[in-house]
Amino acid sequence: MTAGKNAPSQAVLRFTGVTLGYNSFTVLRDIDIEVQRGQVVAVMGGSGSGKTTMLRAATGQIVPLAGHIEAFGQDVARARGEALRKLRQRMGVLFQQGALFTDLNVFENVAFPLREHTRDPEAEILRKVLDKLDAVGLRAAAHLKVSEISGGMARRVALARAIVLEPELVLYDEPFAGLDPISLGIAAQLIRTLTDRLNCASVLITHDVAESFSIVDRVYMVGQGRLIASGTPDELSASDDTYVRQFIDGAPDGPIAFNYPETDAFRAWMSAHGGTP
Ligand SMILES: Nc1ncnc2c1ncn2[C@@H]1O[C@H](COP(=O)(O)OP(=O)(O)OP(=O)(O)O)[C@@H](O)[C@H]1O
């Protein structure tokens, strides 16, 4: 049997009963997430709720304390060496500071992963890079130095670089942070369009309710050390859960904690400094 349209859909990324943390500090417990090919999914939650930690776990940078993380049907935590490298090659990651190489021009920045990971001939590199630059509206900026482009353009170049190997999963860490309202709308539409065009899956970590709700298929909301809610933007908009409401309505008062919780490590540090927590 060949995998055709009727084949059961395989999750590109799946968290099953995942607990994440650092040493004795547990950040999130018992998380279940599923992302399918073609979907754009948002992971939302207050500051310090563990969104970036989830992204690190998805790429195998940290290992879950409990549960399983699968990418493309493979256990990410068990992948080592070459297998992990191959797995990561199927993922594009766009960090908040998607730093570009300042000594390379726009074209060479986007070409970099192709030169590192493929043996593509120069004509093929030219075709692929211009295609991705075209997708982010910067084909004609290929020759510019990084110092000659704006901050918003630099983000789009970083995006073109993140997708140049045509990943099956793209992870975005706060893609809308610090963008003006117009650039924000463009960035959101770009993520949707690229996901559809590459037929990949996209996961975005974001605080931006309005912009992400307009493009995503599904939202996962984390807080209070767990998965608080998940559903379509419409389902979450209709939720009467107090945490979900506080987040969506941007209300200052509610269950989202302002204070970072006291840990044993803090108490030890405090008493070493002669104070009482
Ligand atoms: N390398 C680390 N070692 C120890 N603790 C960490 C580490 N990285 C993050 N943490 C802690 O884990 C918790 C979750 O951090 P994380 O960066 O995942 O939050 P976030 O939801 O992405 O926050 P923000 O929206 O503010 O970026 C925080 O309490 C943070 O202090």
UniProtKB/TrEMBL annotation:
InterPro entries: AAA+_ATPase, ABC_transporter-like_ATP-bd, ABC_transporter-like_CS, P-loop_NTPase. SUPFAM superfamilies: P-loop containing nucleoside triphosphate hydrolases. PROSITE patterns: ABC_TRANSPORTER_1 (PS00211), ABC_TRANSPORTER_2 (PS50893). Keywords: ATP-binding, Cell membrane, Membrane, Nucleotide-binding, Transport. Residues 13-249 form the ABC transporter domain. One of its GO terms (molecular function) is ATP binding. It comes from the Bacteria. CDD domains: ABC_Org_Solvent_Resistant (cd03261). Pfam families: ABC_tran. Gene3D superfamilies: P-loop containing nucleotide triphosphate hydrolases. PANTHER family: INTERMEMBRANE PHOSPHOLIPID TRANSPORT SYSTEM ATP-BINDING PROTEIN MLAF (PTHR43023:SF6), PROTEIN TRIGALACTOSYLDIACYLGLYCEROL 3, CHLOROPLASTIC (PTHR43023). This is ABC transporter ATP-binding protein.
